[in-house]
């Protein structure tokens, strides 16, 4: 599930499985469909 948070006066969308943050809800939804619930191997 994607959650919405306010940070730095912006709205961010966070993948609840791995914690990756997106500034676009559609991108977050697409990521969640493929997320394997592990920490990303790149910097957020």
Strand content: 25-35%
Q: Give average pLDDT, whole number.
A: 86
Count of separate structural domains = 1
Structural class: alpha+beta
Instruction: Count every helix, treating DSSP H or I runs of 4 or more residues as helices.
Output: 1
Radius of gyration computed on alpha carbons? 10 Å
Order of helices and strands: EEEH
How many strands in all? 3
Described by strand count, sense and barrel closure, the largest sheet is: 3 strands, antiparallel
N→C terminal distance: 18 Å
**Shape assignment:** globular
Estimate the helix proportion, in percent.
10-25%
Which strands sit side by side, in order, in the main sheet?
Answer: 1-2-3
Low-confidence stretches: none
Protein name: DUF7128 domain-containing protein
Domain DUF7128: 1-44
Organism: Halomarina rubra
Description:
With 44 residues, this protein is α+β, with helices and mostly antiparallel strands. The chain has one domain. Helix content is 23%, strand content 32%. β1 and β2 (10-15) form a beta hairpin. The longest helix has 10 residues, at 25-34. It starts with a strand and ends in a 10-residue tail after the last helix.
């Amino acid at each position: 599930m994607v959650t919405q948070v306010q940070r730095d006066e912006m709205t961010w969308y966070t993948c609840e499985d791995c914690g990756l943050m997106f500034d676009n809800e559609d991108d977050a939804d697409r990521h969640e469909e493929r997320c394997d619930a592990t920490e990303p191997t790149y910097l957020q």
